[in-house]
Amino acid sequence: MILVDADKIGVSRPDRPLFGDLSLTLASKDRLGVVGRNGTGKSTLLRVLARQQEPESGTVRFGKNVRAGMLPQVPVLGDTSVLEYVGDNWESEAVLDKLGMSGFLAARTTTLSGGQAKRVALAKLLIEPLDLLILDEPTNHLDVAAIAWLESRLTVFSGGLILVTHDRHVLDRVTTKVLELDRGTGYVHDGGYETYLDAKATRLSQEASQEAVRRNLARSELAWLRRGAPARRRKSKSRVESATALISDTGPKVDRAGSLQLSSAGQFTSRTKSEIASGVPRLGDKVIDLNGV
Fold it and tell me: What is residue 264's DSSP assignment?
């Protein structure tokens, strides 16, 4: 069953495109992880796919009777009790307990911290009868036990999933495809995070080889254009235009070294893949605990 189909969608900022000409189709049991550096448009893409924001170009279509729910980075819960918001039943209490909110069932949603509000919004989505879950950083503010429980819950979810997270463990264990937003372009890779890393390394190597060829050709064409005046008069106008365009082209913008290194600590680092794989703490390990600040 087709859940959502995006056809050549694009969104830009005043100074640059976020993504353009992006097409993808998500069916039942597809699990898509969306990755990219901060500012590449991941949250914007999720809002577009949830039909909460119109794309500047292209179209987004949902399958017939598809029920979709989205967890934004900053949810708005209104003013009610936590249990009333999620649903006053045993399943709501069980899910809230797994997410570390069992002590807040009677609390007003307006008194919750940002992290608590996000866990409450996530709990509500997880118990609703949805066909498509769209989750923006759902593991933020969760401890290790809650992340492990969420992984299990998402693994058995029968619908489709679109997920933004910096936790590579979650990406590897939950997703079946990875979409990378990079320099205004979207690249889809089959498999989890490890497969994506290998595919990206291959793509960047190919880009570097193509750019080296372009630069060599540009140097050759520049030398040809600089020949003396009699030779210039005999030059083909079309080749002159082609050579000028080639020389003016700056080639692809090279990605920064060390960009988009996901870790289980949810941080961007300059570590290599092997360093990340060996012993970086998972999201949720307590680093500092503040009281009465």
Answer: T
